[in-house]
TrEMBL record:
Belongs to the glycosyl hydrolase 18 family. It comes from Myotis brandtii. One of its GO terms (biological process) is chitin catabolic process. One of its GO terms (cellular component) is lysosome. SUPFAM superfamilies: (Trans)glycosidases. Keywords: Glycoprotein, Glycosidase, Hydrolase, Lysosome, Signal. This is Di-N-acetylchitobiase. InterPro entries: Chitinase_II/V-like_cat (IPR011583), Chitinase_insertion_sf (IPR029070), DIAC_cat (IPR047898), GH (IPR017853), GH18_Domain-Containing (IPR051887), Glyco_hydro18_cat (IPR001223), Glyco_hydro_18_chit_AS (IPR001579).
Length: 379
C-alpha cells in the first residue's frame, strides 16, 4: 500500500461519523492547517490555479518555513526545489499563486520516446497527487547541435506541456535556460523550439561568470549590459518577449583574491569549466542575508561598478587574505526590472527567495522589503 493510499483510507475513516466532509478532513489532516475543530476548509485550496497573471513573479523556494514571510502580494508562481510542503501549497493557492514541481531528468534517457512517456506520466501523477499546478523543467546539462539529445529535449518539453495541459486544467509548464542563448556552458539547446513548446522560459540571469575567456578577475554575477544584451539575443531569435521571465540572483559570489590592486581589481585562481580557462567556481555563493551583515564590517564598504552596474566590496579574512564579493541589491535589480517593463517581458523572478533575512530584526526587515520592492513594476 502506498503512502497516498494509506492517507486516503485514513481520511475516509476520519470523516466517518464526523460532521466534516472528506475534503475538510483531508486538508486538516494532510496539510495541517488547522485542527479538526469544526471550522471547514475551502476545498478550492486543492484545485489548480487557472488564472493567468498580467505580470509574472516567479519564485524558487528551497525548503524551510521562510515562505511564510514572502511578499505574497506579488508572487504568481512558486517552484518547489526543496522538500514538498503541503502547507505552502495550500497557502499559495489561497493567495492565487501556482506551486510547481521541479523537473530534472538525464538527457541520455529521454532519447527513448517510451522513457519520455513514462517520465511525463510520473510527473503528471505526482502533480495531481500533491495538488500542484505544473512543472518547472530544470535541465542544465550539455547538449550539442545536432545530436539526438538536441531533438529529444525539445520533444520532452512539448510532450510534457501537452500532457500537463490535457490532464490538469490551468497547469503551467516552464523551462529554465541560461542567461544567453549562445551555447552557455555548452548548453546548445533549440531555444526557439523549447520556447514554442512551453508556457514560458525562466532565463537564469546569474552565474554569468561560469565561463571566463578573458582575464581571471572577480566580476559581477549579473553584469547589466551583458544581461540585457542576452535578452536582445533571445528576442532577435524570434522568441516573443512574453515568453521570457527575467530571473535575478538574490545571492553573490565571494572570491579569494590572489592579488587586490588599489583600484579594486581582484585576480582569482584559474578554475576551468566546460572548456573555459576561468570561472566563478573560483568563488563561493553567498546569500544576500549574509552579505548585508558582512558588508558593514568590510574594508571598503559598499562599492559600485558603473560599467557592470553592480555593487561589490572587499574584506580581509582571519588568515589575512583579501576577498572581493560581487552581488545584486535593490539598485542593480531595479535597473534590470526597468528593462523587463520597457521591453514587455512576461515578468521577473529570482533564485532564490530563501536568501533574504526574515528574522524580524528591524534593519533586516527593511533590507528584505527593499529587495521584494525592487521586483515591482513601476507606473
Amino acid at each position: 500500500m502506498t503512502a497516498d493510499e494509506w492517507l486516503c483510507i485514513s481520511f475516509t475513516k476520519s470523516a466517518a461519523g464526523s460532521n466534516l466532509n472528506l475534503h475538510s478532513v483531508m486538508l486538516s489532516s494532510y496539510y495541517g492547517i488547522r485542527h479538526l475543530s469544526g471550522e471547514r476548509e475551502d476545498p478550492a485550496l486543492c484545485q489548480p490555479i487557472r488564472n493567468r497573471p498580467n505580470f509574472e513573479v516567479f519564485v524558487f523556494d528551497v525548503g524551510g518555513k521562510t515562505w511564510k514571510s514572502y511578499d505574497w502580494s506579488q508572487i504568481t508562481t512558486v517552484a518547489l526545489f526543496g522538500k514538498y510542503d503541503s502547507e505552502l501549497m495550500c497557502y499559495a493557492h489561497s493567495k492565487g499563486a501556482r506551486v510547481v514541481l521541479k523537473g530534472d531528468v538525464s538527457l541520455k534517457d529521454i532519447i527513448n520516446p517510451h522513457f519520455r512517456t513514462s517520465w511525463i506520466a510520473q510527473q503528471v501523477n505526482l502533480a495531481k497527487t500533491q495538488y500542484m499546478d505544473g512543472i518547472n523543467i530544470d535541465i542544465e546539462q550539455e547538449v550539442t547541435c545536432p545530436s539526438p539529445e538536441y531533438d529529444a529535449l525539445t520533444a520532452l518539453v512539448k510532450e510534457t506541456t501537452d500532457s500537463f495541459h490535457r490532464e490538469i486544467e490551468g497547469s503551467q509548464v516552464t523551462f529554465d535556460v541560461a542567461w544567453s542563448p549562445k551555447c552557455i556552458d555548452r548548453r546548445c539547446y533549440n531555444y526557439t523550439g523549447v520556447a514554442d513548446a512551453c508556457d514560458f522560459l525562466f532565463v537564469m540571469s546569474y552565474d554569468e561568470q561560469s565561463q571566463v575567456w578573458s582575464e581571471c578577475i572577480a566580476a559581477a554575477n549579473a553584469p547589466y549590459n551583458q544581461t540585457i544584451t542576452a535578452y536582445d539575443d533571445y528576442i532577435k531569435m524570434g522568441i516573443n518577449p512574453k515568453k521570457l521571465v527575467m530571473g535575478l540572483p538574490w545571492y553573490g559570489y565571494d572570491y579569494t583574491c590572489l592579488t587586490l590592486s588599489e583600484d579594486h581589481v581582484c585576480t582569482i585562481a584559474k578554475v576551468p569549466f566546460r572548456g573555459a580557462p576561468c570561472s566563478d567556481a573560483a568563488g563561493r555563493q553567498v546569500p544576500y542575508k549574509i552579505i548585508t551583515k558582512q558588508v558593514n564590517s568590510s574594508l571598503s564598504g559598499i562599492l559600485w561598478d558603473e560599467n557592470q552596474k553592480s555593487p561589490y566590496y572587499n574584506y580581509k579574512d582571519s588568515a589575512g587574505r583579501f576577498h572581493q564579493v560581487w552581488y545584486d541589491n535593490p539598485k542593480s535589480i531595479s535597473l534590470k526590472r526597468v528593462y523587463v517593463q520597457t521591453w514587455g517581458l512576461r515578468g521577473i523572478g529570482m533564485w532564490n527567495a530563501n536568501c533574504l533575512d526574515y528574522s524580524g530584526d528591524a534593519v533586516a526587515k527593511q533590507q528584505t522589503e527593499e529587495m521584494w520592492e525592487a521586483l515591482k513594476p513601476k507606473l
